[in-house]
């Protein structure tokens, strides 16, 4: 068999990977050794990229969904000439502080499009990128936005449920610029894939409406032809590449150990002999490196032509394109919320919490066409479709994605959209189902992506559907997540303030938590200041004397705290109500402010229709709490609040008990 | 068309459901009205059940995976004569305290096999039940265990990723006694399924190796024939039943509103006219009721014969069968752990935490053949296969299920196993991936099922794989879950004590959390008492005087606290170390014990390589904490512990800082 002229380039990936993994004493050789030819075919002939401009907005996106095979990506970035991924970085693979970490970590300026590792997330992110591309293409036209999304994918990503969620919806939406390159090596960490799967995976894609090509993954020409075919298809493409895991290392290739068994110098030596690679460790011959470097340069002209086309856009259109790609909000956007906020304190605004959020979002959608809303088959009860129309196979201009009952995909899609840029992703479902999305939410937080998670039906207040649908621990579990703002507004005024904050928060995700039931106004007058911006504030100071009691509450329970305060004050007990819509922002305030709000020398009672877990941070172990003792129960909301003793009377009793005890 | 003789029986379901839903003012009519004929076919001709003995061990299991259609199940239980589901209960549908809750809630004695509602869980539970049946069948033979598992399923369950995980693995394992009845009504909450799916779902099952039959779901005879065919198949069966959602109510049938739009008296009346049902609300004519009641009686003889066969078993075999079905542990089981515990304090026991757990589990497996271990493609790094062999399509005697990279299914499978009974389900993966399992874990906790979740790689101690694989918030999020014991042992002695507790804990799930890295003994001598049983205890009391400082730690950080204590004591600061392997058990102790352990008048410092969230319960807001500030980083474990300043020196410094401050 004649060797393909690019074969040495693939071997360069192979040996850089082996050398780095031997040096690191651990790593996953399976992917870079198995997919070296696949990656070479993609980068040499097809990929639209510019290593000198890693964040070129119209670049093709590449996701390494099998993120444990990170050396594949680092090799590609180094070989094609991304500035920050130097040979020194490659040598420092898996060391503390290296860009070449165990798993790729989101850093678009380095060439890393998304953090991957937890399986299935990456292909769902790629799906989200393809959705964002299609939407932006519809907005700005082929001249400005027209690129493809590729994902390297292993068996694990396709076993995970989120993988099927993606396959199903991508096929349905006919996302034809999305291409998966499947490393069909028939080995997972446990050994042969036949231990746990026997279906024809390619057929599963065909059933979902994908264009599928099956090739020898070590045949560069065959992969390249398949990539051509993918570019010509009107459906998303799956290129099933039959490969040998760990190819090139005699001891482990095609074996379970090919996945991630420790490699030694002897293995590197044996591979050099087998593949006739005479070069020293980490030595890529100049001619090979030069060829690799030429691939990125291939796109220089394209990039320049694209820049010229952007320059040539009408000024307003160009400004809009640049604005959304930079993630900037339109100037004056907050004005659209002003009339709403001005009347938010009026009693007739006592709608269901989620409907308040829906009304605000409808206003925002009018001035921010970059907002895309995904919802998991709860359009009617969450009401966030507003004036949007659906994003479909035939209409890419729609900003509302009917995700079906696929919460996990929805969250990971939002991450892909946010990583792509140019759109602001919202993800809407019931709070009880946030657990389905949680692995994706963790990735948003880890990457610091500005995804807006919107949750409805936030407590036992949902009523008769019962404990499966009643979150009691979920506020706590979300608050436990680093780099996630969790906001639970008490009424329409707080809701609009929180949305204002959420839209401006760009360093990480936000969870916006809303009641199903009506939220009567607790803020009784219009104030220009965004009081929620400090995370917590004194809603009502004690009136009948120096503050003895501080009631702390969030969301629907703020009204209840206010009612309790009225009873306590009437009894001559000076009581303040503190609203804490966002703990994370409150904790960022200075000590003096926090102490003043919390009233540390007073009796404190927390009120939230949820578990106490986490509240001791504000209450101390001896503070009082009125909330849930465990899971909920089926029944109407008012009955349940009484049953679980979450009432103004209970708050009053708890405050009195502590006042008598005198321990605070 | 001649009406099938059982058609009035199906209409009895339909009208009971309509009447109950009208009365409740809310509910989901789509399922009971669409699946009335399907259910009638199943119960009339095929199901092996005995309403007089709801928990008959060899009954067929029925799961309503589309749990929002709960009225279907309540009708079936009432009509066939389950004692506790009376007509009064049916009338009280969705009221507080009713057995007929919004969603079915686990109560086998009532006839409710499992709690359902969150979509996809139910069919995965059914899968677990079928696995348990197959395993018990292999253990005890066809005469003793030989029943089928049926699940009603809607579109949502099949859109959820967990649905595909189940389809894939059930097909692979050829679980031929598992049958799904799919309500193919082409409508979801959002409207037509074509909004979000266009694949041929039946074909997806065929690709996965299922036996698929497509029938008219309103044709009782066709469904019955399909059930016959399923019973004859050597593969799991999916009966795709084309149905009309909300069938019988002219205003909503076949429409989006058929799913759960509010129904009124007028609708009930219109349905009565359409279907020529002259009977009053909640009135089931005696002849129809009598026919329904006869179905359960059909199995009386079978049940008695089965009882006779059990009676006729050799005494030892019968005792063993009854023991495992009752969920009792074998007498003297703890003795197998004794030699391990006696030597657990010896320094050579300083293995990796997860390997310690593996060694204990290998001992337990020797005396408890009812233990079944599921693992999500991490056999080697978690090492819990021990001496077990694999449960496969050809060998049902294996107690180790290679779940593939399907964590969510794995957790829900464990729930199904536990709900089935006769097996003890373990579910093994990395702690970072517990989020994938979390929706199933929540169901374990809600149902109070004794599933053992085993987690490895519990902190930054896993090293170079980086933050995607490093849990920092997950201990907190698990501790936030009601009715879940979370145990994080510090060394081999604590590990064996915690496993002892976990095996005895039957009222809910347990999360067993283990380090990857070595856990040197912190318990330096053998003690017969299970000290972990109180959840927390003084490991080392202060020595150089009255206790001034209390260091509280869990897991791998207990050793670190001990090192800090040595430094503090050497400096004359009287310091105790408290180990808190299980917060939930500790919180159940009496106040005096807790106060004595926590040393409330001392300076307290918590130490855990995780976030502080939740710790203020023990530390107060002013206590000290040495742990993680946020997500982790890639790098070797020792480097990371230093980088994040989780060291004995940091603990000492924190204690000194607080001592100087004097605020505690």
From TrEMBL, chains A, B:
Substrate binds at residues 28, 259, 457, 469, 516. It comes from the Bacteria. InterPro entries: THDP-binding (IPR029061), Transketo_C/PFOR_II (IPR009014), Transketolase-like_C_2 (IPR055152), Transketolase-like_Pyr-bd (IPR005475), Transketolase_bac-like (IPR005478), Transketolase_fam (IPR033247), Transketolase_N (IPR005474). Binds 1 thiamine pyrophosphate per subunit. During the reaction, the substrate forms a covalent intermediate with the cofactor. GO terms for molecular function: metal ion binding; transketolase activity. GO terms for cellular component: cytosol. Keywords: Magnesium, Metal-binding, Thiamine pyrophosphate, Transferase. Signal peptide: none annotated. Belongs to the transketolase family. NCBIfam families: tktlase_bact. This is Transketolase. It comes from Herbaspirillum seropedicae (strain SmR1). The lineage of its organism: Bacteria, Pseudomonadati, Pseudomonadota, Betaproteobacteria, Burkholderiales.
